[in-house]
């Protein structure tokens, strides 16, 4: 029995699957991750600022025009479409097998694929708010504002994306929901994440169910606790898994 057969067997036996994912879930949709060879931490080495620095609260407040230049150019991908992993996870939820997708991603692709319970640990590019009056803006509205720093037409305040920057806390309600879902899960699928960004990555330690599978191209710190490791592209793995789970199609 190969690894995908084993995974398919576990999925069939499970009722409360939780998927915990990161940027690697969306690389096949054309959105670069941070730490792969083609990731932003490697390709941006000639830039005067490191991505972690630009994506910090203090940098945002001090140099919003540099932040928005990087953010618009590197972090916004409005043309990206969900891939096989996003689609299968939505299908498993619709079939009553998957409780939630817990993601560090900010791209909204899980919702676009049809997932309903998506716990976005780091927020979303689709939610933006005026820092002064609190008015809400969609991604489309933010994209339509081509000035160096997007500003609220009502009060002139800076429109900040509701993404969690370095130095900012995670939303307490989202964290508590993630801990609860992971604690009650029977199968934990970890995919497309280096598991290095804290406190998000530490949440997987709350799992006390039967099986953990890590679907990631590179090794992660949680591999020693995994019952199954598949170091291949998550989209291909999910396609193979879907073919095993729904063979008639
Ligand atoms: P990361 O860049 O640290 O790690 C990504 C991991 O995914 C790597 O270990 C890589 O080997 C693996 N990977 C890449 N492509 C893969 C594929 N096709 N199949 C399987 N594995 C693949 O990303 P992270 O752990 O999510 O942490 C980075 C932070 O950056 C997160 O906080 C996230 O919010 C943010 N981020 C988000 C996006 C997005 O929303 N799509 C993109 C870049 C960064």
What small ligands are held by the chains?
nicotinamide-adenine-dinucleotide
Radius of gyration: 19 Å
Overall pLDDT score: 95
Distance, first to last CA: 22 Å
Shape: elongated
Count of DSSP-assigned helices: 10
Low-confidence stretches: none
**In percent, how helical is the residue content?**
25-40%
> Which architecture of the domain at 1-30 and 82-122 and 171-249 does the CATH hierarchy give at level 2?
3-Layer(aba) Sandwich
Order of helices and strands: HEHHHHHEHEEEHEHEEEH
Largest sheet: 6 strands, parallel
* CATH fold annotation of the domain at 1-30 and 82-122 and 171-249: Rossmann fold
- Give the percentage of residues in beta strands: 15-25%
State the CATH superfamily name of the domain at 1-30 and 82-122 and 171-249: TPP-binding domain
What order do the strands of the largest sheet run in, or round the barrel if closed? 3-2-1-7-8-9
Class based on secondary structure composition and strand pairing: alpha/beta
Question: How many β-strand stretches?
Answer: 9
The CATH top-level class label of the domain at 1-30 and 82-122 and 171-249: Alpha Beta
Pfam families: SIR2
Protein name: NAD-dependent protein deacetylase
Binding site for Zn(2+): 130, 133, 152, 155
Binding site for nicotinamide: 34, 106-107
């Amino acid at each position: 029995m190969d690894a995908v057969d084993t995974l398919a067997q576990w999925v069939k036996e499970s009722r409360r699957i939780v998927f915990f994912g990161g940027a690697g879930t969306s690389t096949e949709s054309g959105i670069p991750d941070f730490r792969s060879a083609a990731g932003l931490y490697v390709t941006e080495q000639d830039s005067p600022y490191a991505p972690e620095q630009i994506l910090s609260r203090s940098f945002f407040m001090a140099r919003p025009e540099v932040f928005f230049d990087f953010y618009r150019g590197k972090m916004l991908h409005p043309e990206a479409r969900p891939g096989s992993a996003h689609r299968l996870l939505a299908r498993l939820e619709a079939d009553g097998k998957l409780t939630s997708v817990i993601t560090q991603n900010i791209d909204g692709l899980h919702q676009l694929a049809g997932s309903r319970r998506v716990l976005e640990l780091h927020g979303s590019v689709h939610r933006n708010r005026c820092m002064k009056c609190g008015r809400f803006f969609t991604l489309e509205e933010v994209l339509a504002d081509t000035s160096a720093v997007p500003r609220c037409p009502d009060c002139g305040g800076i429109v900040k994306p509701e993404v969690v920057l370095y130095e900012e806390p995670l939303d307490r309600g989202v964290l508590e929901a993630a801990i609860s879902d992971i604690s009650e899960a029977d199968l934990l699928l970890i995919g497309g994440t280096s598991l290095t960004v804290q406190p998000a990555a530490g949440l997987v330690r709350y799992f006390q169910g039967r099986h953990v599978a890590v679907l990631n191209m590179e090794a992660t710190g949680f591999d020693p606790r995994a019952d199954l490791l598949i170091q291949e592209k998550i989209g291909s793995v999910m396609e193979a898994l879907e073919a095993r789970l729904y063979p008639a199609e």
